[in-house]
Automatic annotation (TrEMBL):
The chain crosses the membrane at residues 6-23, 35-56, 76-100, 112-131, 137-157, 169-188, 208-224, 245-263, 269-296, 303-321, 327-352, 373-394, 414-438, 459-481, 496-517, 641-660. InterPro entries: NADHpl_OxRdtase_5_subgr, ND/Mrp_TM, NU5C-like, Proton_antipo_N. This is NADH-quinone oxidoreductase subunit L. Keywords: Membrane, Oxidoreductase, Transmembrane, Transmembrane helix. It comes from Streptomyces morookaense (Streptoverticillium morookaense). One of its GO terms (molecular function) is NADH dehydrogenase (ubiquinone) activity. Its EC number is 1.6.5.-.
């Protein structure tokens, strides 16, 4: 089987699994889990085969004319280079782990068949984005992911929070997709083709008439999909969905798509200095702001959500300094340890009976009861904090090293301001990342107090998935010496300066949060244990639907921790209440967009009811009045009718005589 044929099967198999699952889910429930898991496993295996066949060598291109559209045709094209095949392996492996995890996590959920089919469709769409060599075909996968995310985030549609989160995710990402679509058409008009290779050739040869405009239009869509400032507010709210969905969205699909598209089209961005500066500033604000917000969250999944936003900021920062190898390398390592963190968080929530870190900090024995999640998440958090020798250290240092080169003016065509911006923000974020990672670990696993109620033992499938993801989270960074063969020979090994600075910042963050934790225990000891709200993830192995009624209670006040002894509160001080609410961006958007839109809707309703309907009612009343007048003349008396006829004839005769006389 050729590489091209194998690559076609990679996105096709999950798609067929999704169709089969939707058609047979209710009629043959016994086939639901095999139809969810087997296509994902097959796609992951075939993705590995494609990566092996491609071998990091020359890119493999194949295309067939999809439809003639005049001057700019659309091709069903594949482009398989080192970036694409490795990203496809990540998507396949994470999707397989999510499907396996979900078989136990949502075992008694009555909507599991549709959920599994949507996850398969989600996976297929992301694989289409990864392998596509044509922007219009890529756009199909891009939009299908948005639709799938709407349904998956709103899986618990009975709750107001899930409905609001799914709608918010859909609207915010679509808000960015409009300029993204315009940017695709603008690129195609400049380059004369939708083929990515043709666009990159035009960009390299200076053939783009408006590179800055094209890049900024694309960047709006990327900011929405990859949750970058200022279109990032949908991602923390999306935690209202099931935990496996969060793992899939954050690790391998949706948010990774925006970074991947910029990496594929990076020559378009490097053709514009202004676009690179905008990208660098966006990355810097995203990194620092999300790290501060993560340090103030009480919901464990929202901590990880803001963490994802910050790590995506590292990736866009690497792209801002012209190093897509470092960006994709961090995309790969982040996908491994972030999937592990989210799936491990599901185990923690089930064992603790809550998703509140403050409540976990007041309960003891959690690490002993869930040893698999404890050890695997410890390694994943160390990778997130970029502590050597775990995977996150190598990829994050590759980003900081690229920023250092750009700041020194060693990167051709990259403004030094972009390099300094990314480097400074990256180092500060490294300190904050280690702080919130350490805070999560301490509050989840080092709590003091009575043990939480035992909610049952985790299924084997869930623990097995954690250990599968443990391997890349631990050792994928060691591939830094081998991946240059896949990334065009670009070195990814850490540099001494940034390694020392980055590791020093991370260690400082860990020391600071540990000191704050020790001080906080004295404060917390005086605070009584409050009522703990349940989350539908709290007993997922029994039945999530049985606890949906309490979901609103759990997510009704997730702005921040209420524990006065929270180490995050101690570290942030007065900034805590602002960081806990995401620096009030939702309030700003409500004032700028939501309220004016609702006011316009009320005005339209008033005009429709009081103006338009007035004419409609008048048009209906006039014939009624005329009919009433005519009805009065209908007496039923023949003499009256004959008299009226005679009188009318006389009037007509007189009128005719007068007219004739006047003529």
């Amino acid at each position: 089987m050729t590489t091209t044929t194998t690559a076609v099967l990679v996105p096709l198999l999950p798609f067929l699994g999704a169709v089969a699952g939707l058609l047979t889910g209710r009629r043959a429930p016994g086939f639901v889990r095999p139809l969810a898991v087997l296509p994902a496993v097959a796609a992951a295996v075939l993705a590995v085969v494609v990566a092996w066949q491609q071998g990091g060598g020359k890119a493999v291109d194949a295309a067939t004319r999809l439809t003639p559209t005049g001057s700019v045709p659309i091709d069903l094209a594949l482009h398989l280079d080192g970036f694409a095949v490795l990203a496809a392996v990540l998507v396949g492996v994470v999707a397989t782990c999510v499907q396996l995890y979900s078989t136990a996590y949502l075992r008694n959920d009555p909507r599991y068949p549709s959920y599994a089919a949507l996850v398969s469709l989600f996976t297929s769409a992301m694989l289409l984005v990864v392998y596509s060599g044509d922007l219009m075909v890529l756009l199909v996968g891009w939009e299908v992911m948005g639709i799938c995310s709407y349904f998956l985030v709103g899986h618990y549609w009975e709750t107001k929070e899930a409905r609001a989160a799914s709608l918010k995710a859909f609207l915010v990402t679509k808000f960015g997709d409009v300029p993204f679509l315009i940017g695709i058409f603008a690129l195609a008009a400049d380059a004369g083709t939708f083929r990515i290779n043709g666009i990159l050739t035009a960009a390299a040869n200076g053939g783009l008439a408006h590179p800055t405009l094209d890049a900024l239009l694309l960047l709006a869509g990327v900011a929405g999909k990859s949750a970058q400032f200022p279109l990032h507010t949908w991602l923390p709210d999306a935690m209202a969905g099931p935990t496996p969905v969060s793992a899939l969205i954050h690790a391998a699909t949706m948010v990774a798509a925006g970074v991947y598209v910029v990496a594929r089209l990076l020559p378009v961005f490097t053709a514009s200095t202004a676009a690179l500066v905008v990208l660098a500033v966006m990355a810097a604000v995203t990194m620092v702001g999300s790290a501060l917000a993560a340090l103030a969250q009480d919901d464990i999944k929202r901590v990880l959500a803001y963490s994802t936003i910050g790590q995506l900021g590292y990736m866009t920062g690497a792209l801002a300094v012209g190093d897509r190898s470092a960006a994709v390398f961090h995309l790969l390592t982040h996908g491994a340890f972030k999937a592990l963190l989210f799936l491990g968080a599901g185990v923690i929530i089930h064992a603790a009976g809550t998703n509140s870190l403050s409540a976990m900090a007041r309960t003891g024995g959690l690490a002993r009861r869930i040893p698999d999640a404890y050890w695997t998440m410890t390694v994943a958090l160390l990778a997130l904090a970029a502590i050597p020798p775990f995977s996150g250290f190598f990829s994050k240092e590759a980003v900081l090293g690229a920023a250092e080169h750009a700041a020194r003016g060693e990167a051709s065509g990259i403004p030094g301001a972009a390099g300094w911006t990314v480097l400074a923000a990256g180092l500060l974020t490294a300190l904050l990342t280690a702080a919130y990672a350490g805070r999560l670990w301490l509050m989840a696993f080092r709590g003091t107090g009575p043990e939480a109620a035992d909610h049952g033992r985790e299924p084997v499938a869930i623990n097995a998935v954690l250990w599968v993801l443990f391997v890349p989270a631990l050792a994928l960074g060691l591939a830094a010496w081998k991946l240059p063969d896949w990334f065009g020979g670009h070195a990814l090994t850490p540099t001494l300066t940034t390694s020392v600075l980055g590791t020093g910042c991370a260690l400082l963050g860990l020391v600071a949060v540990h000191a704050a934790w020790r001080r906080s225990r004295a404060v917390t000891a005086a605070v009584p244990m409050g009522a703990v709200a349940a989350d539908p993830d709290a007993a997922p192995y029994v039945s999530e639907t049985e606890t949906i009624a309490t979901h609103e209670q759990a997510y009704g006040s997730i702005a921040g921790a209420q524990d006065p002894g929270d180490p995050g509160r101690l570290l942030l001080g007065p900034l805590h209440r602002h960081a806990a609410t995401g620096f009030h961006l939702d309030v700003v958007y409500s004032a700028l967009f939501v309220r004016p839109t609702r006011a316009a809707a009320r005005l339209a309703q008033f005009l429709d009811r009081e103006v338009v309907e007035t004419y409609v009612r008048g048009a209906a009343s006039a014939p009624g009045l005329l009919g009433a007048a005519v009805r009065r003349a209908q007496t039923g008396n023949v003499q009256t009718y004959l008299g009226a006829l005679f009188a009318g004839s006389v009037v007509l005769a007189v009128a005719a005589v007068l007219v004739a006389t006047g003529a």
